[in-house]
């Protein structure tokens, strides 16, 4: 009979999982710790690591027991078996009669578990020695235990059942694709990977990826599309991690000959939402399901848990949504930062707008840094200290990484001072601006951030203009004098930037009949994504309370903005007068003043339009909807 050895360092869950597995398989369970002689137990209780001489007799006893169990009903044994030579000593029966199940996780995770244990003789201090001793096997099942015990057991049973094929396959092993594949595997999701093989361009990408990770995960890999698709469970779920644009269409076209009705393609790239709508319509005629899933978090998020924004047919999400939810980041309540956003292109629209807000937040931090660095003659280290203080309240990921950036040195000089001031962009911010123009929604801060990147790219022209205008950086103020007002201005600018972004989502939801749940979108943006912050947490309740109203109309926000408005307009005025551009803060101030102005300048615009083009206008002394034209010059 089969003997299953559940191995790993202390605290990884060998006993808990072993007992569950034994019950599932209806075989006896044994804990190797119960076979330690009293002398070994005494050493461990005293925090003294065991030596090989201590383990020798213990391993011999276990080997004899394994032989007995194999001849009987089989068994599940929980045993650390940290070194290869220990495992060889335990193999008193044929290799095919032992199934090794290696449970593993990060050191910090296991240390936290051990520290929480009570009435157990193993001391947490011994954990480091176990990690130092551990030699990972290159065989058996490798199971990451950062999941619930039920999910771990499910994964083990799935691996024991050789008939099951992976539920999902991934195409495209770039940085994000590799990270997502590792994330799936770490969460117990069997996944097949594919990458094209092109001589002298993309050579053995899939093979090398599988080889590099074989000690921890088993990745079935392919560079043949037909075999890749045949390796998947029907109906198939395939996630594409390729560059947005024509590459997505090329991959879809190459997949189609091998797909069957009800197979599902998930585009996990930054595709334009209109392309997603078009692709879903085309594939629907072929009987193929299609979802556009925005994924935010960068390389680290993809690996450890991103925010995921899938859009498409509800039946497609019902089938594959659990897979996406497994790899997503978790919010403060432990719920996945992943939700079915809405139909057709909604997922990619929401991701596009996420990136637009991200543009605004990044520029807001950048221009604040710039004003402090030169306008207040402040060092990067001093700015880092200030930003760190601000972030105790803001809890902004972008502000957090900016602190690290400002402290980074190279050759004893601040690296930030060596980086060329010409920003790149991938286009999603500009897409947000285009969408806002189409939907007739103001997008001041996001558009200003996009255009700030555009003008930054004109480095040579800017340097020439600086010389022509005799422009020089000059100290305009002192950090101590403006720090409080600058923080108020920064916070107000960030709130206005978010309000503008969610206003565009609201209008898109109405126009495209997507029925977006803005509160739920805010929730999945509280972890894993680039724009996570404490304010995003606040937006969950604000948008739940008033889902159809501009964020700036919420009573709490009104109070906060009213208290910050003088600082916002004051800082903008002071910086502009001193010669320092604040494009996003200026846009935020102008938007606020325009948004809260009962009387705008648009009556003059309407008069001008009617004057030169007979476009007509409405009157304040007549009902709305009635239009008038005036002969402005008497003949």
Automatic annotation (TrEMBL):
GO terms for molecular function: phosphogluconate dehydrogenase (decarboxylating) activity. It comes from the Bacteria. Pathway: Carbohydrate degradation; pentose phosphate pathway; D-ribulose 5-phosphate from D-glucose 6-phosphate (oxidative stage): step 3/3; Carbohydrate acid metabolism. The keyword DNA-binding does not apply. Pfam families: 6PGD, NAD_binding_2, SKI. CDD domains: GntK. SMART domains: 6PGD. InterPro entries: 6-PGluconate_DH-like_C_sf (IPR008927), 6PGD_dom2 (IPR013328), 6PGDH_C (IPR006114), 6PGDH_Gnd/GntZ (IPR006113), 6PGDH_NADP-bd (IPR006115), NAD(P)-bd_dom_sf (IPR036291), P-loop_NTPase (IPR027417), Pgluconate_DH (IPR006183). It catalyses: 6-phospho-D-gluconate + NADP(+) = D-ribulose 5-phosphate + CO2 + NADPH; D-gluconate + ATP = 6-phospho-D-gluconate + ADP + H(+). Keywords: ATP-binding, Gluconate utilization, Kinase, NADP, Nucleotide-binding, Oxidoreductase, Pentose shunt, Transferase. Its EC number is 1.1.1.44. Residues 347-633 form the 6-phosphogluconate dehydrogenase C-terminal domain. The keyword Kinase applies. Catalyzes the oxidative decarboxylation of 6-phosphogluconate to ribulose 5-phosphate and CO(2), with concomitant reduction of NADP to NADPH. NCBIfam families: gnd, PRK09287.1, therm_gnt_kin. Belongs to the gluconokinase GntK/GntV family. This is 6-phosphogluconate dehydrogenase, decarboxylating.
